[in-house]
Amino acid sequence: MNTPSPSSTVRLYHIALSPFCRKVRLVLAEKRIEVELVEDRYWEPGTELLRRNPAGKLPVLRMDGRLMAESQAICEYLDETIPNPSLMPASAIERYEVRRLCAWFDDKFNTEATQPVMNERVWKKVMKTGYPDSRTVKSGLKAIKDHMDYLTSLLETRRWLAGNTMSLADFTAAAHFSCLDYISDVDWDRSGLLQEWYATIKSRPAFRSLLADHLPGVPPAPHYAELDF
Prior knowledge:
Layout: E1 11-14, H1 19-30, E2 36-39, H2 49-52, E3 60-63, E4 66-69, H3 71-81, H4 92-127, H5 134-155, H6 168-182, H7 192-202, H8 208-211
Parallel strand pairs: 1-2
Antiparallel strand pairs: 1-3, 3-4
């Protein structure tokens, strides 16, 4: 295991089915950084999220005596300070493509697919804020398929999403897909190439803790933890 600094516990304040938290968890695991996971149910009374991050967003990483927020910034910090294995390519144009796809998922994919589907089908139930809106879910499910078609077109000419080596773009994408796959909302039959990509990254040791997640009241799909699905 990598040890970032002597006698300091690396702690991640997170929630299980957040793609942004999962993205950081994957990078920490890939870097073999031992981390204490602390669930922050930020919607409940008594949360200290605003003290840790005035923006009021998870994840928050406590590391090297600092509190760090924003998943992309955290992941790039980890990659720069613990360079092996590297998750950012060597050339500027390759790094651009990785960052472009990270933004694609954390912005466009999240807005159109992850957030509406998860909010309606998971978080409304967990937070007890109402019933799912079927029109919002339907729109999100259509968006997932549209995005899958685009990603398939990338994989037709590349081994990984951003190029021929695995990168932060793949972990960012996998973080989002894994949340949706938890509730069985990804039609893997739509794209053999994308299913093969996800099966490959899902089989990495870094993914094990994600596959062990179980949100109370929202059980995972039967195939969720299966590596051959």
